[in-house]
Amino acid sequence: MTLEALGFFVAVVIKAVLFSVALLTGFAYMTYGERRIVARMQWRVGPNKVGPWGLLQPAADGIKLLFKEQLQPKEAKTFLFVLAPMISLVVALSAYAVIPIDKDPVNIFGFNIEPWVANPSIAMLYLLGISSLGVYGIILGGWASNNKYALLGAIRSSAQLISYELALGTALVSPLLMVGSLSLRDVVAQQLDHSYLNGDGGWLILAQPVAFFLYWTAAVAEVNRAPFDLPEAEQELGAGYHTEYSGMKFAMFFMAEYVNMFTVSSVATTVFLGGPGGLPVDETQGLVYRLLAHGPHWFLLKVYFFMFVFIWLRATFPRFRFDQLMRIGWQFLLPLGLINLGVTAVGVAMQWKSYQFTIAVMSMLVTLVSLSLLNRKPQHH
Amino acid sequence: MSQTMITGDIVSRFTQEQLDQNGYTVMNMGPQHPSTHGVLRLVLTLDGERVVDCVPDIGFLHTGIEKTAEVKTYNQALTLTDRMDYLAPLSNNLGYSLAVEKLLGVNIPERVSHIRVMLAELQRISSHMVWLGTSGLDAGAMSMFLYCFQDRERVLDLFENISGVRMMTSFIMPGGLMADLTEGFLDKVKEFLDYFEPHIEMYHGLLTGNSIWLNRTKKVGVLSAEQAKDYLCTGPVARASGVDWDIRRDFPYAAYADYDFKVPVLTEGDSFARYMVRMAELDESVKIVRQCLTKISPSGVYRTDDRKVVAPPKWEIARSMESLIHHFKLFTEGYAPTPGEVFQRVESPRGELAFHITSDGSNRPYRMHVRTPSFPHVQVMPVILQGHLLADVVVVLASVDFVLGDVDR
Questions:
Q1: Looking at chain B, which residue has its C-alpha nearest residue A147?
Q2: What's the complex ipTM?
């Protein structure tokens, strides 16, 4: 092994560890943040006793979960029961490997540090592929628990994930078609290096608003969050697929859910909101401006904005019913995604500019909405 | 369909063979389940997630209140009634007190009747707040639960203000009220109404216009007018199915005849209709309480002056031998109505609540039977759940709004 390859290998391992630690810390404080924010939205206070402003609450929760008795139902399949949360967590963490948190490598002490763990040319395929593996953790966990509530939750979850995976995929294909690459780094570069009016760049949410809407809806369903949180619908199923889990095994499912939330938020940021892009690049400005104009902090800001939206949705909406959820996925999101994809493909073939995509996609949306309004049957109540 | 019984346990109306043949699953929901509103146990037979059959199993909260009342004096038995429908103790108190007063033949001062109406309507608001909050929660709208419970807290604060107790007040008692209104109580009620009224609008905004909520409740758990009558459904459940039946209007008690209010009736009979009926009832309750405020003086008589039924005031006991004897007799052996029986119904937040009390001339009820609104509402569950999805079960359960303490007694 050459020295260079060894250096690359070590760098990747270090980065992977750093990303995992960051994600899990992010998870811990996300639970705290969620509880505080939801509490505010619900006219209450939220955790505020452990440490200043309750900031040590996640640590207290972690310690509690670590020392909890590892309960396991008598008839549970031990191997799968233990394996399931591991699959969930490992899959969730590995998905994050291809997310670039900045555009270009940074040169620190002569080392060229790349702000991503890996940058395969098929990053998007890898992401979609590995995130759909997450369903194994859920369905195995639900099945191995030997509990009807857990099984129902697991079945709901797998059906939901498979259905929304399609809508998610079609929603992501449109912007990727415009970029012409599956590499997330290229996606970011395209958005930041080209202009919106004169080129095919600019934040893709501008050129692909419909795709963004579809992606976000499907993503909320994909991570089982309200109003699509049917697999763990507390009021119907106890806790869904993790009803029988306790202690760290439960915590792993919980971590996986939050890491998945981070992942879909990061993908939304990277693909639609220009990733680390912030203010326009202007070399004439001072050093401070150039340092702050774009970079990982913008990336984090956008990711946390999406995380906030997750919390906001949870505090606002009732839950869909299963058949309604399926109808939305198959009869609304997927067809709309395909039509959007068709329009985008035509645009790519005709080498449209970004703003022309916006016009085309919006006029498509307006046409579809007016058509559906015209075809609406009069409702009798 | 035969009832499979294993050691007295309700399993399913299907035999194991039938279950295997059709691929049905039997799922046990409750008595410990987040959405059974107390300790109801439902044995669901499911085809996938679709409910084929549902057998309610009650009795987990059986406290023997009717039987216990037979060994209590009339005044002692009052406190038992608080614990039946624990979300509307004052309505129970009112029903019981009216029944005992009818048995005794005492006259109640007008002011007391108006205060009773006000308290009963405030109780209706607080009970409906629990219903609204929990039905929101059961459909996944968690914030609704917390908003509604904070409004309920305000009502309970009012009750605490007059009686010192938040829930089991026993404030309405045979012969009148436990005490006079506290100073400034009517202002506090007005303050609450001003605070609460905009909230009804807010809840309409959060749920009534929300398409997810409409999808979850419309055409879910449909109860026809015939079924409602057959199963003796009353209250909002019956009124949502088109049965125009309200005890407050049809058989006025207390001072309800003096009040101007509408009885909301809808015909759809689904969960959404039940929701809309109760929301309209909230408006009407606010209206009634506002009318009460104009009719009630801040202080005055708060109980009958019949010394055989209620104790004389403290200052009188200190001065008059006769009063002291009244006080002593009342708290040692109570009062003994003439033999006979009475039937008194009131409109509790859940429907028709009726007390049937038989007296044998002693100081204790010979028999007290309570017709509670929740019991028929549990009976109706298998009918309206047929063919719905598991997720609908909790929504329908919440929309029917029964209290298990009221069912089991």
A1: B27
A2: 0.77
